[in-house]
User: What shape does this take?
Amino acid sequence: MDMKIDGNRVRREREQRAWTQEHLAGATGLSLRTIQRIETTGTASFDSLNSLAAVFSLSVADLRLPEAALNVQPPAPANWLAGRRILSMVGALIVAAIITPPSVVLQIPAAVVLWLGLELGMRAWRRTRRTGSI
Assistant: This one.
């Protein structure tokens, strides 16, 4: 699995030591093409990253890109009691109370069906809005 690393940092470390790419390839046991790819694209396998870190006397974390540069955001936790969902549940209960006879036995299943339909409809609407297709 390729990892995102700071290719510019690898180049700077190599140039500070006045090494050529060929010399770095020999010191790390990697191919010249691998060194060129790492410096150009900033991607390396974990083994290549370990070899570079060992040769430069750095930690693996020093060569990896910071999380902010990766634009990686952890997924938001699914909060089922978010404000929008509570409002949609209350709305479904009110609509069910209006359209069904005054019996809790009928109102609660009707409210659940209305709420699920609303949630699934909103999810589909957001998905089409995000992707631009149905």
Q: What stands out?
A: The first strand starts at residue 2 and ends at 4. Residues 2-70 form a domain with the 434 Repressor (Amino-terminal Domain) fold (CATH 1.10.260.40).
